[in-house]
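Fig. S4 source data, part A: sequence.
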Amino acid sequence: MKIQSIHGWNVTPDEAIAIQQKLSQQLILTDQLDAVRYVAGVDVGFEQAGTITRAAVAVLRLEDLQLCDRAIARRPTEFPYIPGLLSFREVPAVLDALERLTLIPDMLLCDGQGTAHPRRFGIACHLGLLTRLPAIGVAKSLLVGKYAELPDEKGAWQPLIHKNETIGAALRTRVGTKPLFISPGHRMCLETAIAYVLRCTTKYRLPETTRHAHKLASGPAIDAQISSDISTSEQMTLF
């Protein structure tokens, strides 16, 4: 996978904010998608009391949501935990994992925010620009904004509003559960982002992309395990 190098990572929080403000102007928030065959879930966990960042990418075939490829990468955690700047803490390890994939995805679904962010530049935006891939923020919790009450039915959604701007959506993906917070990251509009999240969601609250990536990022270490849940027609990599 070709990844752009557009800034350094050894930065201060103030420098990170300035980078976000500058790069947010480069986002494409209209649909610029080629054919989407493979979608990737991206998630990050931490080991050894937070000193090691463990990033995971799980690539699924969109047609049947079968797991086709996956990769894990670890590196020392170098940026502090600061809400709104989590991509500077997490993205370096994610890029390592993406580079280890054999099967290059057509779209990224990131566990975190896209434009539903104080500076409209969450992790999905960051990864979208760096990889040039369409990207979606799929967050389990609200960072900024307000939304109207949702009907308790799958697929119901309401705009997420911040400073009189629609920055994402609260989306009900399963009856009787809390909504997810969806926002475009790069190369798509909000409605398209919602549609792809729903296509990747089966009977659970979280889309299958997120569920697979979360197990890899935060579950037991399985680096040497050969899993039977990989499609036999695809190549599996796990590092």
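Fig. S4 source data, part B ends here. The two ends are 16 Å apart (CA to CA).
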